[in-house]
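If you are new to this repository, start here. Below is one unmodified record pulled from the training split, so you can see the exact layout before writing a loader.
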Amino acid sequence: MNNSTTILITGCSSGIGFQTASYLHDHGYKVFATARKEEDVQMLKGLGISSFLLDVTKRNTITDTLQEILSLTSGKIDVVFNNAGFGQPGAIEDLTTDALKEQFETNVFGLHEVTIQVLKIMKSQGYGTIIQHSSVLGIISLKLRGAYNASKYAIEGLTDTLRLELKDTNINVTLLNTGPVTSSFRKNAIQKTLDNIDINNSRFKESYLKNINADKSSVPFNLEAIEVAKKVEKIICSKKVLPRYYITKATYILGFAKRILSTSKLDFLLNKI
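And here is the target side for that same chain:
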């Protein structure tokens, strides 16, 4: 692929989505950045990036935006980066079913709806690449992250299955297993904790408050969001797309630990994090 490549990116209001859209746009790719709020769409347009309103939890916004993009690209979309998502912290016992449903509506069901709509286009054109944004927490689980862990495990399962089902096509499907990256993710997760978790009546109150007040600069192995953008470009340019790509040393270390340690030993390690 070259710089005439068209790429649709979801969740571009800030962080990884914004940095990826900006980086690829600056490198000459035909980027279609999407966000669920009109003010963010206008902000992206102000930077010269083609942007559209798309809320992954609202099917009609996906359909409408895809039609608009196809009208601008002679009916093709080369790559989709399913980046939209958020993290709902909370111990399993403190997590309401409604909060869990909200987590899955965006991270799993929204991603799935974009995927199946884009698949129709890619099957028609005979090729394409789908990049699903998973996480190191799609490989291992951390306490107080149950909803997010579960959503990323679900993405792993859907994507692994889809890759098998598309083996006889020219459509690539891959996963990004991202570790700690500078973005608005943590700020948004703190707000979700405050909105949906009864901190004061939880036996994990001390842990919640520690996480809320933690210095984000102390997170080990943290990378800037631009590193994800560079990985996405690597995938776009690759002649052989791999099933998954690790980003940050944390993902490599914990992915290796998952492969070699027994469950009890891995649990011991993860309880130290």
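Two things worth knowing about this chain: The mean pLDDT is 95. Residues 97-125 form the longest helix (29 residues).
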